[in-house]
Amino acid sequence: MQTLDSIVKDLEAIASEGGATAVKLINPQDVVVAQWVRNKCQVGCRHFAKRFTCPPYAPTPQETVEVLKSYNQALLIEFANRYRDKLLKEPEKTPIYLTLFNMEKAAFLAGYEKALMYEAGPCALCKECPAEKMENPNPFLKRECLRPAEARPAMESAGIDVYSTVRRAGFELEVVRDRSEPFKCFGLLLLD
Q: Is the dihedral of CA 143, 146, 152, 155 positive or negative?
């Protein structure tokens, strides 16, 4: 297994190549999890029950807390200066989810078999997710996912309070008030 310093350098290179602006090693116990975050998914997100990485298919906040307890090291990955209009017109060279997935895969292959990534936002692997057509959504229907080896839950969908977590880690994050303003996204990679 690669040393922590060595794998972090390798993962920083993958992140940078994929457009990340910062990578920070954190203690997973500093990740803030709250039920209200998942509730906001249910009442405020148009992807609720329409992606297999979103509630009700995603891990509950209680499950996320238990997962975090089994880790000692994690990386927060920042993607700054994103613009909605630009992303709609010019697709990213390397989409965020692919960068994060490549980081998880590299960590796994380097001997970090527990490596697990949480996405920055809803899944975008498929143009249309089969979850959109599911009646009576429940976690058992997730087996219909077309790309289960790659699909990962968004931080928010698993109850992670992204604002509190990234601020606790020393990042700045503000609410975007206008769709023309630049925004930031964050991913989380649990290592060991």
A: negative
